[in-house]
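Lab notebook, bench 4. The sequencing result for the construct came back, and we need a structural model before the next group meeting so we can plan mutations. Quick request posted to the team channel:

Model the 3D structure of this chain.
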Amino acid sequence: MYLMISKYLVPLAEVDAVREAHLAFLEGLEAQNLVVTAGRQDPPVGGVVVLDVDDEARAREIISQDPYVVRGVAEYSATGWVPTRGALKDYPKV
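Done. Here's the predicted structure in C-alpha cell form:
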C-alpha cells in the first residue's frame, strides 16, 4: 500500500473548484479496487489517499492523473506502508 499525502498549493477556494473532478477520479479508482480509503486533512491543507498498489512507481503513475495534480492545485508525496494492526491488517489484496 502507498499513502499518497497531498499538500494544497493554492487557496482552498481554488482547490474546491476542482474537487468534484477529484472526487470523480477517486470514484473511478475505487471501481478498480485501487483506493482503500481517502479523505481531506483537518485542517484542510491537503489530503490522504491510500492506494492498494505494490510499488511507488505505480502509485505515482496513478496519482499523476488526479485532477488536483493535472490542474496544479496540489502535489503528493508517496510513502510505502504495510498495515500490521487494526482494521487494515488483513486488507485483501486484489
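The first helix runs from residue 12 to 16.
Will bring this to the meeting.
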